Each structure stands twice: as structure tokens, then as C-alpha cells.
Amino acid sequence: MTVQELLAAYARGERNFRGADLFKANLSGANLSAAEFIGANLGDANLSGADLGGAVLEFTDLSGANLRGANLCRANLEGANLRRADIRGANLRDANLSYANLYGVIK
Description:
Blueprint: H1 3-11
């Protein structure tokens, strides 16, 4: 799935992006609130300033992702891999980080 395909599907009202491979995708500033990315690959993706409020990111690979200033309020990141992710300025209020890999997170 390309970034353009993802954004077009989201605009049409689709929210289920389970297992999507978006490695190194540039989703900076994208509105993806309430989207479901269970088991997706967002490794090294640029999600700076993205709205992921209420998103389901369970077991998602976010290793090395740029999440600076992203809205992750109420996001479910249970079991997500955030190794070496940059979360500076990200809103993690009420986010579920149970069992998430936070090793080397830049905060």
C-alpha cells in the first residue's frame, strides 16, 4: 500500500489498515485518527505532527519512527515496537503503552 492509497482510502471512510506495509512512509501531518494499524509496519516512517488520536496501533512496528509532535491521545500502542522512535512533543495522554518496546525512545 502506498501513502497515496492509504490517504485516499482514509478519505473514503476506511479505517482498517491491518498489516499495512508503510516502511519509511512520509505521513507527516496526516489525519489518521481512529485508524486501525494492528500489526502494520510503520518502521522509520515520518509521522511528525500526524493525528493518530484514538488509533489502534497494537503490535505495530514503529521502530525508528519520527513521532515528534504527533497526537497519540487515547491511542492503543499495546505491544507496539517503539524502539529508537522519536516521541519528543508527542501527546501520549491516556495512551495504552502496555508491553510496548520503549528501548532507546527519544523523548
